[in-house]
Write a structure and sequence with these properties.
Elements lengths: L1 H19 L2 H14 L4 H10 L3 H14 L4 H8 L35 H23 L37 E3 L34 E7 L7 E6 L6 E5 L2 E5 L5 E10 L10 E10 L7 E2 L7 E6 L5 E6 L6 E6 L6 E2 L7 E6 L6 E5 L8 E5 L7 E2 L7 E6 L5 E6 L6 E6 L6 E2 L9 E6 L5 E6 L7 E6 L4 E4 L6 E7 L3 H9 L1
Parallel strand pairs: 1-24
Antiparallel strand pairs: 2-3, 2-25, 3-4, 5-6, 6-7, 7-8, 9-10, 10-11, 11-12, 13-14, 14-15, 15-16, 17-18, 18-19, 19-20, 21-22, 22-23, 23-24
């Protein structure tokens, strides 16, 4: 059943988080499991290793024992958590201690200093904490490999960590901040993970006003959208240009690629005469009036995405009758068709390291688009996941460790985050009353995801959520239909993050 599969996925992710030392994420996931399945002995045991207080740990172990009175490891762990750090009498001699415990030597003269005893107690408590985790961990079955879990969402203790790879683990709970609340300049993520065995650097907080976003938006009664710019909190909106679709910043944040309607004439048969097509344009962000048309496909073009070196773009075109993905250089030359099939291939997103392009295609499931990746020459096509429904609009985080995308398996479009391999997809826009969520994008620091949604009315507006999905705010309230969003790459911000 789908619900049982979802519980098993959360259990696996919770165990993985606990093993990494990310207790906060483990608690969120494991508490959801035991809430839905109070008789899940394994979840209670792992939750005992993740909670902070001794009382909570005892309660979890006691619950595991009520479920299974023969759980000797839970009994042993509980025995070692007796008040004062002393052991209760053993119930059977067949269960010796697995590790020696510090004890007070009763033969010492009463007048001796109590300092060694105090030190022994402190050391004993530290050993107890490590022991509980070891005892609980030793009974678990094999865990799925990291590429099946959320390793990219929370760095492992053995990996060399750059500060800008930090992220929180999503949760299906959500708190909505009303549109009347203005985000203060210091509005920052509310979640700070606990350190793992090797302390990890925390993310440098940046106010949303440090970022610049552009978004396309359609005025009521108009046929084509316009391009707007605003600060990362939605303030300071200004019109940049009319007749602009699918705008995307180049890696330097200096130029914008976008799609615009063009009227052409000529053709053969039914195509004779004037017709409207869309072509690709590039312009400096501070002078869109100087936009240069770089394609002449004479068909429909959409979804441009830049290569990380800024020399090429990938686009979608139906030039040969069905939507395929093409690449070309910024001067409009070196045109290459990457996907050669009868399927629908769309929504390309070039990875920050330049090694792959993710896209969606219905080549494996006609009528339903799935998430795929390929190398920039169109080779090594690989399906990344097999979620139900259709998947749309994949986007990379700026450090290349995560993907965000839309999936409609629940009956409406929702936003998910996954690792760089498209695995361990986590829903971050739950309980939206059947709203359509679309066109997600990471903020430059990777701590937030903006997206377009109609959750508060008939029009689509721009929203922002954190990576746990429990903080949501509305960024625009303009009465138009917002369509796509992109962030200006903040190179200085990334340099500062690496220095911290």
């Amino acid at each position: 059943m789908a619900n049982q599969d979802d519980l098993q996925e959360k259990l696996r992710m919770g165990i993985d988080a606990a093993r990494r030392g990310d207790k906060a994420a483990a608690q969120v996931l494991l508490r959801q499991v035991v809430a839905a399945d109070p008789q899940n002995e394994l979840a209670w045991m792992w939750l005992a290793s993740a909670v902070e207080s001794l009382d909570e740990r005892r309660a979890c172990l006691e619950r595991a024992l009520r479920i299974n009175p023969n759980n000797t490891r839970a009994r042993e762990a509980l025995r070692r958590l007796q008040p004062g750090g002393t052991a209760a009498p053993r119930e059977a001699a067949s269960h010796p201690r697995t590790r020696p415990q510090p004890v007070v030597d009763a033969s010492r003269p009463a007048g001796r200093s109590s300092l060694p005893i105090l030190i022994g107690v402190i050391v004993g408590l530290a050993v107890l904490t490590a022991l509980i985790f070891a005892l609980v961990s030793s009974q678990q079955p094999r865990i799925l490999s990291t590429d099946e879990l959320v390793a990219a969402l929370t760095p492992t203790a053995t990996r060399t960590i750059d500060p800008n790879t930090f992220t929180a683990t999503p949760s299906p709970y959500m708190r909505i901040v009303t549109a009347d609340v203005n985000l203060p300049p210091t509005f920052t993520p509310t979640f700070t993970p606990l350190p793992s065995e090797t302390p990890l650097p925390s993310a440098t907080p940046y106010p949303l006003t440090s970022f610049t976003l552009i978004y396309t938006s359609l005025d009521p009664g108009q046929a084509v959208p316009s391009l707007y710019q605003a600060a990362g909190d939605g303030s300071g909106e200004r019109l940049l240009a009319e007749d602009v679709r699918d705008a995307a910043f180049d890696p330097a944040g200096q130029r914008v690629a976008f799609v615009r309607e063009v009227t052409i004439s000529g053709g053969e048969g039914e195509e004779v005469g004037e017709r409207v097509v869309t072509e690709l344009f590039i312009a400096p962000i501070d002078n869109l009036g100087a936009a240069e048309q770089i394609t002449e496909f004479g068909s429909t073009i959409s979804h441009p995405t830049w290569s990380p070196d800024g020399t090429q773009l990938a686009i979608v075109s139906d030039y040969d009758g069905d939507e395929d993905i093409w690449t070309l250089t910024v001067d409009g030359g070196n045109i290459i068709k990457l996907t050669e099939n009868d399927a629908v291939d769309r929504d390309p997103a070039w990875s920050p390291d330049g090694t792959q392009i993710v896209f969606v295609s219905d080549q494996a499931s006609p009528g339903l688009t799935r998430l795929f990746s390929m190398s920039p020459d169109g080779q090594n096509v690989t399906q990344l996941n097999n979620m139900g429904g259709s998947t749309f609009h994949p986007r990379w985080s700026h450090d290349g460790t995560r993907l965000v995308f839309v999936n409609d398996s629940s009956g409406d479009g929702d936003i998910y985050i996954a690792d760089a391999q498209g695995q361990s997809s986590l829903l971050i826009t739950p309980d939206d009353g059947g709203a359509e969520d679309r066109s997600p994008a990471f903020t430059p620091d990777g701590n937030w995801v903006s997206f377009i949604s109609n959750r508060e009315g008939e029009v689509f507006q721009l929203y922002l959520t954190n990576l746990r999905g429990d903080v949501l705010t509305r960024l625009t309230n303009n009465g138009r239909d917002d369509q796509t969003v992109d962030y200006k790459p903040e190179l200085l911000l990334r340099l500062r993050q690496r220095q911290n």
